[in-house]
């Protein structure tokens, strides 16, 4: 009996010791060629990229189709994430676990936040944030849950700040005056091999400087009219299926993502004024969080579909999708980046 107790204690001690040790980085579970992972939130664009991939091979993992191959001379793995922060997180981590992903690219469509930009412009922000991760207070007074203003640390939370001060909460303007919502932005907790076991809080996730430098140099052949704008071979494109302003690639600024489909012009203005946000969508910051947690460099390209929450009819937005311009221009930027990255490396 004594030997059994000693053996049990030793086993418990050994299991505790092993539990306390940081886990080794897992090997790729499916295919181990070093690759750039491309996560697309827009199905038609993923189709364009897959169609141009050489030596394609499809792998179905948990229902998701991952295509490996060589695109513009660069080994890649391509997947469609589907809309939402949850899908983006899940599919990106699945890719990282099953393939040897050395860098990540996210591409797709987004709403505009900066009113100076136009439908069809492709944004390449230099950082991403999640402003809809919030502390929802009863009013616009700074929460003091843990004893002093802005302190919510006893809840395992941290309010977001800019220039050393908490970001002001969102308020709705009405005819009777401002109505406080009590929505205070929070930072996200993230655990990595480098910051364990304490972890850290982050608001912004900077894109990779090396990838951003390549993106600044690319000159993709963007179009004003999508492929479906021309009804007959050699004919003139239908003006109704062309955007009015020639799209441009715009590099820099903050992109933001959230779990809400943004159709509120007041919140869009708030994001622009408080964060100088340039674009809003529902996937990239989630991918950025996964990239940061796994120490994988990333970048994102987003084609603007409209001004998020705009109430007026926008013929350009209709033309962008009806003509196939959205996916065509977005794919052109991704391909131009891969060309530039191949030359850079």
What attributes does this structure have?
globular; Rossmann fold; 345 residues; 8 helices; catalytic activity; Nucleoside_phosphorylase_sf; 5'-methylthioadenosine/S-adenosylhomocysteine nucleosidase; disordered N terminus
Give a quick summary of the entry:
The protein is of the alpha/beta class. It has helices spanning 2-20, 43-51, 85-98, 209-217, 265-275, 284-293, 315-322, 325-344; strands spanning 31-40, 54-61, 64-71, 74-80, 99-112, 122-124, 127-129, 134-136, 161-162, 165-166, 170-174, 177-185, 188-190, 200-202, 204-206, 249-251, 254-257, 277-281, 298-307. The protein has a domain at 30-128 and 201-259 and 278-344: Rossmann fold, CATH 3.40.50.1580.
Q: Describe it for me?
A:
Keywords: Signal. This is 5'-methylthioadenosine/S-adenosylhomocysteine nucleosidase. GO terms for molecular function: catalytic activity. Residues 1-19 form the signal peptide. The strands form 4 sheets. Strands 1, 2, 3, 4, 5, 6, 7, 15, 16, 17, 18 and 19 form a 12-stranded mixed β-sheet that branches. A 3-stranded antiparallel β-sheet has the order 8-12-11. Strands 9-10 form a two-stranded antiparallel ribbon. It contains 8 helices and 19 strands. It has a domain at 30-128 and 201-259 and 278-344: Nucleoside phosphorylase domain (Rossmann fold, 3-Layer(aba) Sandwich). Helix 2 (43-51) crosses helix 8. Mean pLDDT is 89; it is low at 1-24. It has helices at 2-20, 43-51, 85-98, 209-217, 265-275, 284-293, 315-322, 325-344; strands at residues 31-40, 54-61, 64-71, 74-80, 99-112, 122-124, 127-129, 134-136, 161-162, 165-166, 170-174, 177-185, 188-190, 200-202, 204-206, 249-251, 254-257, 277-281, 298-307.
């Amino acid at each position: 009996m004594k030997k059994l107790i000693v053996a049990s204690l030793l086993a418990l001690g050994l299991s505790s010791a092993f539990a306390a040790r940081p886990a080794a980085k897992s090997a790729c579970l499916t295919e181990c060629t070093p690759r750039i992972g491309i996560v697309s939130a827009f199905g038609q664009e993923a189709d364009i990229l897959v169609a141009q991939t050489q030596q394609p091979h499809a792998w179905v993992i948990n229902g998701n189709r991952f295509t490996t191959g060589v695109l513009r001379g660069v080994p890649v793995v391509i997947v469609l994430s589907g809309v939402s922060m949850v899908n983006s997180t899940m599919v990106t981590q699945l890719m990282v676990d099953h393939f040897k992903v050395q860098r990540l690219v996210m591409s797709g469509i987004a709403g505009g936040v900066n009113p100076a930009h136009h439908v069809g412009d492709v944004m390449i922000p230099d950082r991403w944030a999640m402003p809809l991760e919030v502390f929802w207070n009863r009013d616009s007074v700074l929460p003091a849950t843990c004893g002093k203003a802005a302190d919510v640390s006893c809840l395992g939370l941290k309010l977001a700040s800019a220039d050393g001060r908490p970001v002001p909460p969102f308020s709705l303007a009405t005819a009777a005056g401002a109505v406080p919502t009590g929505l205070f932005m929070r930072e996200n907790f993230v655990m990595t091999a480098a910051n364990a076991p304490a972890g850290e809080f982050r608001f912004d996730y900077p894109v990779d400087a090396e990838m951003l430098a390549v993106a600044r140099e690319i000159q993709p052949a963007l179009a004003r009219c999508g492929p479906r704008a021309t009804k007959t071979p050699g004919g003139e494109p239908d003006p109704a299926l062309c955007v009015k302003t020639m799209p441009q690639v715009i590099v820099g600024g903050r992109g933001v993502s959230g779990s809400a489909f943004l159709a509120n012009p007041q919140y869009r203005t708030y994001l622009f004024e408080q964060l100088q946000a340039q674009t809003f969508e529902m996937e990239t910051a989630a991918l950025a969080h996964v990239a940061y947690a796994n120490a994988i460099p990333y970048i994102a390209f987003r084609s603007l579909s409209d001004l998020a929450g705009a109430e007026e009819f926008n013929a350009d937005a209709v033309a962008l999708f009806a003509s196939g311009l959205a996916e065509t221009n977005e794919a052109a930027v991704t391909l131009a980046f891969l060309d530039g990255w191949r030359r850079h490396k």
